[in-house]
From TrEMBL:
Disordered: annotated span: 63-125, 333-376
Pfam families assigned: GLE1
Protein name: mRNA export factor GLE1
Keyword Metal-binding: no
Biased composition (Low complexity): 64-78
Task of the protein: Required for the export of mRNAs containing poly(A) tails from the nucleus into the cytoplasm. May be involved in the terminal step of the mRNA transport through the nuclear pore complex (NPC).
């Protein structure tokens, strides 16, 4: 509405007026009625007015401009009209001490150029003004006193700082002097140290000089001693050379003497119808070898130790050659004697046949009871049936080699790769056979069986099968059989317990793949003819090295292996054979018979006892065979077996002992002690490493 707008404008104008801006005290009534008394009472002078008139007004009038002075005089006269204010010379006794005490303050007040003009006020205002002036005076006095005290304190501080700076300057001088002393002392110590080091270096140089002089003297003495030593060595070398030369002459003389003995054996050639030309040829070669060594040494000076060793080797070979010749002659004489006895026996039998019916012939010794008394003269050759069986196995092995000859001699890279893969697939599993858990042995058996069955197997990270080549099966069968025998020759020879896990796998493969078994026997008979048993005879025109190979020795570069190594290999193969004939694969068909069981072990034992023993060989093989297979034979043949053991002890031991030299009695004594212990306890112990039922559960 228009009236309301004008109302607000009026209120805003009142608020902006002088009275509207005044501050009002709402509680002034609470302070009493004396507030209004001053306004209603008549004005009167304060007790301080005299002091104000004397000290303040004169200064105001002097400093005020003319206009202000006239105005103030007018106001003063106007003010004096109601009540005159005479300037009384009497002062209030309360202000006299104040005025005397504040004379300095008035002087300062007079000196101030700008003093505000003061109008005469009411008594209360004058009282307040006087209090203010007195407070300012007191405050000024307190300030002056404080300033004086502050100045004194500052002077004391300045003096203290001055004294402190003086003391610090003294300490600085002392430190500086101390530093100079230390530097001087350090310099003197450095100089003394340098002097000592120089003296030490000088002493060290003197010591090095003395040491070098001593070393030079030692070197001179060593050089002199070396010269004397070389002279002594040269003298000894000449003496040794002369001794070797004399020894070579003696060796040559002995070789020539042995060669004459070889030549003197020609008288037996016509008598025994034996060709001994191979022995004479080798003897002549050895004589030429020794003569060549002596001829070469006479040209070069003195013979060396190698020359003497070569000559001694030739002499030893000549002795062995003569010994083999004598053995061959003795065998030929024995054979001729046997032939003569056989002819005499036949003639005697023919004469007896005319008088009485023909007597039944005795069965071979293997078919006799072990308690039967053997003939006084034992055989040297193997029985005809056994020899025929041996030859059939060797012929089967030769036919198998011919069957894969194309694969073996192929130049095609693909065929070579197939051959290598098949060989690895066949031989590596056999190499992994050891005294491990039965489950692992079953995995190896299954892998070999799968390979022989034409199934693919993993080898070298890829699949291999005998069906990759038409000749693959023959090759794998031959290599597998060869590897089994080689494991007996190497692994079983070193670790006898390994014979049983290898034998049980070989027996299981033999049962499922009979041709592999025949090849195992062929390889075994070829490397160890005593497993037949068979003692190869020296044939006419045969080289000595070839004959030694037939006996089972390894010949490399015309050097025959040591007897201990030879017996170790034969022992390993006989142990493998003895383990095969008594073990069967536990997961096979139990209804079928063993393909090569204990009856073959009984036959082998009977035939070996019907043959003349060989020194060191027969005793070793009998011990290994009985230690591995004796327990199984004892359980199979019982009383007959113990009769066989008594036969060995009573009749065969004296024959072995008669041909065994003193240096070869170890194997004989070991066999004798083993059998005596077995007879004492009436039991053959179970061989160490025999596979029990717990082995197959592992």
């Amino acid at each position: 509405m228009p009236s309301e707008g004008r109302c607000w404008e009026t209120l805003q104008a009142l608020r902006s007026s002088d009275k509207g801006r005044l501050c009002y005290d709402r509680d002034w009534l609470l302070r009493g009625e004396d507030v209004l008394q001053e306004c209603m009472s008549l004005p009167k002078l304060s007790s301080y007015s005299g002091w104000v008139v004397d000290h303040v007004l004169p200064h105001i009038q002097k400093n005020a401009p003319p206009s202000e002075t006239s105005a103030s005089s007018v106001s003063t006269s106007a003010l004096d009209q109601p009540s005159s204010v005479p300037r009384s010379p009497l002062r209030n006794p309360a202000f006299s001490p104040v005025s005397s005490a504040t004379s300095n303050g008035t002087k300062d007040k007079q000196e101030s150029p700008h003093t505000e003009p003061m109008a005469l006020q009411s008594p209360r205002g004058m009282k307040v003004e006087g209090c203010i002036r007195m407070y300012e005076l007191v405050h000024r006095m307190k300030g002056a006193e404080g300033l004086r005290q502050w100045q004194e304190e500052q002077e004391k501080k300045v003096q203290a700082l001055s004294e402190m700076a003086s003391e610090q300057l003294k300490r600085f001088d002392e430190r500086k002097e101390l530093k100079h002393h230390k530097e001087f002392q350090d310099l003197r110590e450095v100089m003394e140290k340098s002097s000592r080091e120089a003296l030490g270096q000088q002493e060290k140089l003197k010591a090095e000089h003395r040491h070098r002089a001593k070393i030079l003297n030692l070197k001179l003495r060593e050089a002199e001693q070396q010269r004397l030593k070389q002279e002594e060595q040269e003298r000894l070398r000449k003496e040794e050379g002369q001794a070797r030369l004399r020894s070579l002459y003696a060796l040559q003389e002995e070789v020539l003497h042995l060669s004459q003995q070889l030549d003197s054996s020609d008288q037996h050639r016509d008598l025994l119808q034996v060709d001994l030309s191979a022995f004479r040829t080798r003897g002549n070669q050895l004589c030429g070898l020794v003569s060549g060594i002596i001829r070469a040494t006479s040209e070069n000076g003195f013979p060396t130790a190698e020359d003497q060793a070569a000559a001694e080797g030739a002499l030893q070979e000549m002795r062995d050659l003569l010994s083999n010749l004598r053995q061959e002659i003795s065998r030929a004489c024995e054979e001729k004697r046997r032939q003569d006895e056989e002819e005499a026996r036949i003639k005697q039998q023919a004469a007896q046949m005319q008088q009485r019916p023909e007597a039944h012939k005795e069965s071979p010794v293997p078919n006799q009871g072990p308690g039967a008394k053997p003939n006084e003269d034992l055989q040297v050759k193997v029985q005809d049936s056994t020899m025929q069986w041996y030859q059939q196995l060797q012929e089967a092995s030769s036919r198998c080699v011919l069957a894969f000859e194309g694969l073996s001699n192929s130049k095609d890279s693909q065929a070579k790769k197939i051959k290598m893969d098949l060989q690895k697939a066949a031989t590596i599993p056999v190499s992994q056979i050891s005294t491990i858990a039965g489950s692992k042995l079953k995995e190896i058996f299954d892998k070999i069986h799968s390979l022989l069955s034409g199934k693919p197997v993993q080898s070298g990270g890829h699949s291999v099968s005998v069906t990759l080549n038409p000749q693959g099966l023959d090759f794998v069968q031959y290599k597998l059989a060869e590897k089994f025998v080689k494991q007996g020759e190497e692994e079983v020879a070193s670790h006898h317990e390994a014979a049983f896990p290898i034998a049980v796998v070989a027996s299981g493969i033999w049962e499922l793949h009979p041709r592999v078994g025949d090849l195992i026997l062929a390889h075994l008979h070829k490397k160890c003819p005593y497993s037949v048993p068979f003692y190869p005879a020296f044939k006419e025109g045969m080289a000595l090295e070839d004959y030694q190979r037939m006996l089972g020795y390894q010949v490399k570069d015309s050097k025959v292996e040591q007897q201990d190594n030879f017996l170790k290999r034969m022992s390993g193969m006989i142990r493998l054979y003895a383990a095969i004939i008594q073990l069967r694969w536990p997961y096979g068909n139990r209804q079928e018979t063993h393909p090569h069981g204990l009856n073959h072990g009984w036959r082998w034992l009977a035939q070996i006892l019907n043959m003349e023993p060989l020194s060191d060989v027969t005793a070793t093989l009998l011990f290994d065979f009985l230690e591995v297979c004796g327990n199984a034979l004892m359980k199979q043949y019982q009383v007959q077996f113990w009769k066989m053991i008594l036969l060995i002890k009573e009749d065969y031991f004296p024959r072995i002992e008669a041909i065994t030299s003193s240096g070869q009695m170890g194997s004989f004594i070991r066999l004798k002690q083993f059998l005596e212990k077995c007879l004492q306890h009436r039991e053959i112990p179970v061989p160490k490493g025999f596979l029990t039922s717990s082995f197959w559960r592992s």
